[in-house]
Amino acid sequence: SVRFIAGESKFNRKYFENFTFSITNDQVFLDMYLRKPLLRGWRARLDFQLRVGNSKSFQSLFSTNVDVCNIVNAGKMNLFKKWYKNLLKYGNFLRQCPLNVSHLKGWQFGEGLVPPFIAGGSYRLETYNFYGHYRGKDEDFIMSCTADAIIHI
What is the pTM assigned to this prediction? Predict the structure, then answer.
């Protein structure tokens, strides 16, 4: 089981009218309203982190930059595509990129979305969405979210 304990987000008003990320009763809720489509070239940096002992520090276990539209449009099922399919249950997203002006309301992290290689423990997932190159001069920030969770296996 997954118990979410904390979360925060930031967003660029150029892309979103509203982006509200909250955790209530161990569940993640995301309400967002896009101002304009998210087009090809939209990238996400995902960082899975494990809490170090009883400290407030986290150590990165796995970090990757992904092309979100390639994942959304791919026919092959992988963990990222599974997450996107779960998002489709709660919003009016298109099944392919570009994502047009749309909304997502009351999203909940569903069962079967935790990678099988994850052991029980205290974790943090950070996602940072952008156009251009991560931390480069041409980076155009879209939004970021951080969620802390305790996973019981």
Answer: 0.84
